[in-house]
Design goal:
Blueprint: H1 17-26, E1 29-32, E2 37-40, H2 43-51, E3 56-57, H3 81-87, H4 95-99, H5 102-117, E4 122-124, H6 125-142, H7 149-159, H8 166-189, H9 195-200, H10 212-225, H11 228-244, H12 247-251, H13 257-267, E5 273-279, E6 283-285, E7 288-290, E8 295-299, H14 300-303, H15 338-355, E9 356-361, E10 367-368, E11 377-379, E12 381-386
Parallel strand pairs: 2-8
Antiparallel strand pairs: 1-2, 3-5, 4-12, 5-8, 6-7, 9-12, 10-11
This protein binds protoporphyrin IX containing FE.
Protoporphyrin IX containing FE (HEM) binds next to helix 10, helix 11, strand 5 and helix 15.
């Protein structure tokens, strides 16, 4: 969905927050005729829209796959159908399981940092660090053979970009669909200990859990959902730490990495809005009546700055605790990959602080992504000064 007119001006791309504040105060729930949807800005209302699936249904309200090209996806279903799909992989995503990936993710990060620290040259933090690390991590988790990593990186590279890249996105999705179909067939015959084998094995029980086309869709969706969000989140973390001068305290062990990353997600979360809900019946939110059958856009980025919930909401507080942010959503669709994203954030910040004395955001073209759902950079040039 395209951004509201108020956010299309260049200077609003990276600073939508004053607009959110005005909207929370003056029009917390409003109908936007030009986009034919209802925008919701307050924390309690956003939480309700994301979690009360009987009133705000996900079925037929796809944000991710509006034309249904991918097939049945968990993000587009309500419980109990949603729970059937999610149940297949839920256990795999538990933090304890994922922790086993730490050494292999760390070695991917170290390899990238080796190159970035050569001669103290400029590094595009997104293109050379966070994007490759998140693509390779989700590839490893799924069980994509290492020989194919370049291939999947090319597809995912072709898939980032603006409207002009739509055809490339669909072409990339088509290729991935075919690729994962073949890999699933292979793992059905010869299961391994990876996520693709878990998904491929889900029909081996007496009662099949996922059909073959659902299995393919699941793999493609996991790959796409797990990649650009985390890429932008970690980029936003390094940018914010440099900008606020808090990097030194993190480097010196005075701040907790996970608390810092949580605050980045609240303050500059990569997903600012979710438009995958429709009203299943008429409902009142913050005194405004919304009719049945309307599309709802839930502004997570605004909810996370709501002063009714957060003290000094426009302040980056790297030791904020508790932090009730909803950057990963809320309710049944709460981000399945949240533990993985947090692990990746932790490993990258750990590796950078181990090896880098000082960060510098360079002058020159950093490229903000278009603000519809995403917030962050497609390109972020920085210099990393190594420890002596
Ligand atoms: C910082 C990084 C990330 C952020 C901010 C983020 C944010 C979100 C949000 C807001 C939702 C809820 C969508 C809704 O309610 O409609 C969601 C769902 C989801 N995310 Fe993430 N995500 C991140 C990383 C990941 C990763 C690494 C994966 C890994 C595969 C992933 C997989 C998913 C899946 C599968 C869902 C759908 C869950 C369901 O419908 O039950 N995400 N994410």
């Amino acid at each position: 969905m395209r951004p509201p007119d108020e956010l299309t001006a260049e200077e609003r791309l990276m600073d939508p927050f004053p607009w959110y504040e005005t909207m929370r105060e003056t029009e917390p729930v409003r109908y936007d005729e030009s986009r034919d949807c209802w925008d919701v800005f307050r924390y309690d209302d956003v939480k309700r829209a994301l979690s009360d699936y009987e009133t705000f249904t996900s079925t037929g309200a796809s944000d991710f796959d509006p034309n249904g090209n991918l097939g049945t996806l968990l993000i587009d279903e309500n419980p109990p159908e949603h729970d059937r799909l999610r149940g297949v992989v839920e256990e795999y995503f538990q933090p304890g399981n994922l922790e086993e990936l730490r050494p292999s993710i760390r070695s991917i990060v170290d390899d990238r940092l080796d190159r970035a620290l050569e001669d103290g040259r400029e590094i595009d933090v997104i293109g050379e660090l966070t994007a490759p690390v998140t693509v390779l991590t989700i590839s490893r988790l799924l069980g994509v053979p290492e020989d194919d990593w370049d291939l999947v990186r090319q597809w995912s590279g072709a898939m980032t970009g603006d409207e002009a890249g739509r055809d490339a996105i669909m072409e990339g999705v088509g290729k991935m669909y075919e690729y994962f179909g073949n890999l699933l067939d292979e793992r059905r015959q010869n299961p391994e200990s990876d996520l693709i084998s878990v998904i491929a094995g889900s029909e081996a029980d007496d009662e099949p859990t996922l059909s073959p086309s659902e299995q393919r869709a699941f793999c493609v969706f996991l790959f796409l959902a797990g990649h650009s969000t985390t890429t932008h989140a970690v980029g936003n973390a390094l940018w914010t730490l440099e900008e606020t001068g808090e990097y030194e305290r993190l480097r010196d062990g005075e701040l907790d990495r996970r608390t810092v990353f949580d605050e980045v997600l609240r303050y500059r979360g990569p997903v600012q809005s979710i438009s995958g809900r429709r009203t299943a019946e008429a409902v009142e939110l913050s005194g405004t009546e919304i009719p049945e059958g309307e599309r709802i856009v839930s502004w997570i980025g605004s909810a996370n700055r709501d002063p009714d919930v957060f003290d000094d909401p426009d302040q980056f507080c790297p030791d904020r605790r508790p932090n009730r942010h909803i950057a990963f959503g809320f309710g049944p669709h709460y981000c399945l990959g949240a533990p993985l994203a947090k692990l990746e954030g932790d490993i990258i910040l750990d590796a950078v602080t181990d090896r880098v004395e000082r960060l510098e955001v360079n002058e020159g073209p950093s490229e903000p992504v278009e603000l519809a759902t995403s917030y962050g950079f497609d390109r972020l040039p920085m210099t990393f000064h190594p420890h002596n």
